Amino acid sequence: MKSNTKSQRGRRGLVWLALAAVVWLGACRQDMFDQPRTRPLRRSEFFGDGRSARPPVAGSVARGQLHDDPHLYTGRVNGALVTTFPFPVSREVLERGHERYNIFCAPCHDRVGNGNGMVVRRGFRAPPSFHIDRLRAAPAGHYFDVITNGFGAMPDYAAQIPAHDRWAIIAYIRALQLSQRAAPADVPTDVLKQLPEAAQ
Which residue has the higher pLDDT, 11 or 74? Predict the structure, then answer.
């Protein structure tokens, strides 16, 4: 009798376990995968023009694309090229600019900005030196515009270099320009003492 009761309990437990497994498996659906959707750039019968790719809804802004500071994102204020930076230039900004400059700019412009980078030494058209009077006098917004939109043989880098990094690169270019025409009197005394005698 006892073994009969135990076997009935065991069977009931198995039935409940099987029911729980069925309920649990029923919840394991891939709704996100199976949902109706349009594959990118495929034909669509839903829209009159037959395209699945749609322009953004008027007034909508994609995440991370709210560019409401024209100084930062265009290098212009009221249509004029800016002469100032949209944020304070710190040591960290210069270090970031140095790193980004060496990645994106040095291949053509060279590490000191004289326009004789490795790409130029291999036969490509040379960019102007950053140290000529015209570019030394150019406003910061000019550099931002050229990095963003390209100029002459230089392609645009808007997709590769975020706006903050473009400004960091410009800060580093300004440091390069200063370094190539600096006199010993421009260098702080404690730093001057650390330089080799030839540099003094």
Answer: 74
